Predict the structure.
Amino acid sequence: VMLWNHDGQIQYRGSVGAVTPDITDHPSYNAVVDNYVFMHNAFRNDLVKLENKAKQGKDVTAAFEDWKDTLERHSKVEDEIFIPILQTRMKQKADGNGKSNELPNSIVKGTAHKEIETLIAKVETSLSSSSSSSAVPMAIHHLQKALNEHLQEEELYVMPNMLKYFSYRELWALDSFIINPKLEYCPPDVLVRITLWWFANLSLSEGWTLLKNFVRAGNQPEMPTEKWQELQRDIPVFHDVPIETLIS
């Protein structure tokens, strides 16, 4: 009964970028769905909870700081790893006219992330200084609206291109950088917190698929060192990192 009650409280599931068979039936879909559907939906669903609790007059300061920390880590991975290497791949595989598909400027230049940061700061200000009962939920609502627009943009433009320009094994290799403790994007203690939060903010169906994807991620065949070096070459932040540190 508790599980069904949980599922009934989940507002967001699925993705605007995953509604056609060319995406959902793609052989590499499981290697992108965690970061670009399930993580996005967890952000959305948790914000809904926080807004509702704030409307009830509850203090959501600590929970919001955890949400913010998780989003910042997610955004850093995108800005330092996924977007740079995706841009390079897209340029390398331009069509015969020398044209390549382009990502929206809001993603490439990071302006969307900066807008979200501004709205996060407004939520924090309202949490620390608000005397109005409506100020906190209103600030969260404005953040929620802008965040959803940005996440949809990523789902429509980044996710399909990740499928197009990377192999299944490469996608899992990129994913491994997130939890590689030597890279410090998500240290072990933080990983435990985020994992529990992740499942708590997903539908039962998406949580079950996420669990199966954890198993898939841990059972990938070894990838040749030169393939790791190819990924490293196109990720500037890794240029000075020993290849042994990247391989997992």
Q: What stands out?
A: Residues 61-92 form the longest helix (32 residues).
